[in-house]
Amino acid sequence: MEPRAPVPHPWATFCAHGGRVAAARAAFGGADWIDLSTGIAPWSWPVDTLAGLDRLPEPAEIAALEAAAARAFGVADPAQVVAVPGTDLAMRLLAPLIGARAPAVRHPGYAGHRAAWPGAELVAEGPGDHDLFVLASPANPDGRLAGPVDLLAAPMTLVLDEAYADPAAGLCPHASDRLIVLRSFGKFYGLPGLRLGFVVAGDRIAGGLRAMLGDWPVSSPAVAIGTAAYRDIAWRRAQASRIVETGALLDTVLHEAGLALAGSAPLFRLVACDDAARLFGTLAHHAILTRPFADRTDRLRIGLPRGATALTRLAAALEEYRS
C-alpha cells in the first residue's frame, strides 16, 4: 500500500512566519487587524524622526551603538558586539564564516535556523556528535529556556539565538568564538521594521562578520534610534513591566477560554488544542492574526494584545470559538 501524502495545513500561507497581515486581509477581509502572530512587543520605543537619512552613518556612531548595546547585554568589551541588519540575515552570514561540517538545529524551532543551515540535522534535545548546534533560548515557539550550565560546557560551537531574551543579559557576557549569541532589537523595542540586531562573539567571528558587512552595516536611522533606545533605561524598565502585566491578562483570557498552554515566553503564548486550525480561522474572521504551524496542527502561537480594546476583542472571538 502506498503511504499517504501529508495533508496540507488549511492555513499554510500563514505557517512560514508571522506578520502576513496583507495576506490575511486578502483571505478574510476586514481592515482593522490585530496582529498577534509575530511575538513582537505591541508598544514601540517612541521615534520622533528618522534622522540621518541624508548621510551615511559615521564609524564613531556605529561604535556608540555597539557600546550602548554591550552595556545592555552585560558585555564588557564592545568590540565583541557587532551591529547587523537583523539577526535573520546575520545567521546566513555566520553559516559560511563558522564553516561547520556537521551542524545540528534544534527542532521544533525557528524556521530561519533551518534556512541558514539547510543541511543541518534536526534534533529534539542534545546535539550529539555534531560540531555546531543552533538553538534559541527562550525557544520559538514554546519558550523553553536552555540550561546555561549545559551550554557553557558544550564541546561544540553553539549559535544561541536570544531574540526573546530582553531585558535579561542572557549568555551574552560569556560569548566567544565557541558561543555565538544573537540578539534582536526590534522584538522588545517594538520596532521590527528597523531591521537591527547584534551578534556577540569572540574576536575571530566578530572580526570576520565586520569584514563581510563592510563600513555601513546598518542604516543611519537604525544607529540613531538603537543608540538612544538602549540608553533609555527608564523606558526599558517600563516596557518590561508592561510585558509582564499584559502577559498575565492574556493568560487569564486564554484560561477562561479553556485553552491549555503548551509553552510561553514573555512576548507570546503557545496554546494546545486539537482543532487549532478552526481556532485560527475563528480569530481571523474577527480580524485577529495568530501563528499556526504546518508540523504541529494542534498548536497556535498568540502574541500580546495592546490595550484593553484588543484584549476584549480577543476574548469575544475566543468565546465564539468555545461556543
TrEMBL record:
Residue ranges that the Swiss-Prot or TrEMBL entry lists as coiled coil: none
Enzyme Commission numbers on file: 2.6.1.-
One Pfam family in the UniProt entry: Aminotran_1_2
SUPFAM superfamilies reported for this sequence: PLP-dependent transferases
Top-level lineage group: Bacteria
Annotated GO MF terms: pyridoxal phosphate binding; transaminase activity
Segment forming the signal sequence: none
Domain Aminotransferase class I/classII large, first and last residues per copy: 130-308
Enzyme class of the recorded protein, top EC level: transferase
UniProt keyword terms in alphabetical order: Aminotransferase, Pyridoxal phosphate, Transferase
Annotated family: Belongs to the class-I pyridoxal-phosphate-dependent aminotransferase family.
Protein name per UniProt: Aminotransferase
